[in-house]
């Protein structure tokens, strides 16, 4: 289990996180990241989402 | 024990070392950087930092975070040469041996020969954190700014400056491009600048310097500015590699995975990567990040398994400009939506077969998401006409 933190002020609306880990990330009407689950079990998908975020707005803790 | 050396603590370099560890790579990692201070990302430099924000906000992470994952970070240590066959990077004081080398030194502000005398007389460029701090300090409501170059960087500088009340002139080409956007896709650019009070000049300009000010002749207009920024492009910082690797004007040539030679990889602006030229993310941070993850995966034996959609963004005058996918040179541009003034601001990019290969939008997150869902599908003419 890891904890996920998103910096919505830094989010640039690419939507890559929602493509990579749709169980954890969504986008609001402005395209800004919405965290669906702060603590997750599918660590690999969440890590990939964090690695691929073009704004580096996702942090995985643990 | 395997040793990976990453040259350049750019967003590509940092993403690469972090991804290597997250993918379980347990060899030695050394991260070299020519600059001093913690690694930072560039997009905020021409946005938040110019708006007067804290330059530290651009930091990617602090040095202790690199130490915590077992990365030896060596700031102030430029690489000056490379022995590919001997797998050694040359530093000012001795060589560093590697098993795998990742080149992530990015680019430098391009200043063509006719403009170099402007820099000598005090014109600014904007590429590094130091550049951004210097430019932010020079901007004020009592000093006029002229920006030479109307691309992404010049446009973002003009946008930040006018919002701070700085009288701003943008010296741009009449045929606008904004990163990957050109033609109809870039048409909203100059009207947007003008609507927010930027004085846009598209005539051929002559710039001279005297008595501490810049004199600018742009067609019939005679202008004076206190601060001049040259933002006419970026060149790959690859000269130090020219004797060792295939280097062209766009950087080090590498295959579609970022491989340059046995044990040598390149990511970001320094990489002239096969097949990426028409991606909207070409030479942007978005591409550097993805390439860094791909190369880390190749080195660690854990390739990326999710599809990545190329992405581009810019923020101008509070309007977010977004694009996704590819824009081939001969593609057709279909407007999908219009703004309040009736001007198209959401677009689909359609290839020869009628397939949507790209999407772009100015100030319409909703329109952008709708256009992006069309990627890879045949253009629905009814949807396009809506």
From TrEMBL, chain A:
Cofactor(s) annotated in UniProt: [3Fe-4S] cluster
Residue ranges occupied by any 4Fe-4S ferredoxin-type domain in the UniProt entry: 2-30
SUPFAM superfamilies: 4Fe-4S ferredoxins (SSF54862)
Keyword field: 3Fe-4S, Electron transport, Iron, Iron-sulfur, Metal-binding, Transport
Record protein name field: Ferredoxin
Domain of life where this protein originates: Bacteria
Keyword ATP-binding: no
Family matches, as Gene3D superfamilies: 3.30.70.20
Known function: Ferredoxins are iron-sulfur proteins that transfer electrons in a wide variety of metabolic reactions.
UniProt keyword Cell division, yes or no: no
Residues in the signal sequence: none
InterPro entries the UniProt entry points to: 3Fe4S_ferredoxin, 4Fe4S_Fe-S-bd, Fe-S_cluster_ET
Pfam families noted in UniProt: Fer4_13 (PF13370)
UniProtKB/TrEMBL annotation, chain B:
Signal peptide: none
Domain Reductase C-terminal: 311-381
Keyword Flavoprotein on entry: yes
Cofactor dependence: FAD
UniProt keyword list: FAD, Flavoprotein, Oxidoreductase
Superkingdom to which the source organism belongs: Bacteria
PANTHER family reported for this sequence: APOPTOSIS-INDUCING FACTOR 1 (PTHR43557), RIESKE DOMAIN-CONTAINING PROTEIN-RELATED (PTHR43557:SF2)
Species per Swiss-Prot/TrEMBL record: Occultella gossypii
The protein's name: FAD-dependent oxidoreductase
Entry annotated with the keyword Transport: no
Stretches assigned to the FAD/NAD(P)-binding domain: 3-279
